[in-house]
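A favour, since you know our structure tokens better than I do. Would you make up a two-line entry for one protein for me to read? Write everything out right here, beneath this request.
=====
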Amino acid sequence: MRYMMIIHHDHEAMAKAPQKELWAEWAAFNEALNKAGAGFSGGLRLTPGKEGTVVRNRAGKSDVLDGPYADTREQLAGYFFIDVDGIEQAVEWANRCPSSKYGAIEIRPIVEQNAP
């Protein structure tokens, strides 16, 4: 089953993390993802939420807002994809992700193309 692993982390906690060790962990984690085979992809990092733009269209009116969608400590930081037998293995990969120490990894199944 394919899963999208959505990384949410606290930017303050990440800023306080030992950077050299953190990026070494990320390099090793991405290497493991890339070696895991088809259906896996190394993580992609996003800029901080404050650099994003949110667009909402309601009743024909478009609102364009600067900054993150919600004012929370944890912001969407990146994502990666895995292809494993089930949720137990997905949880194992989430625990291996370096950002799990500084926020949360949301695991979302991918809807198969033939699904209703």
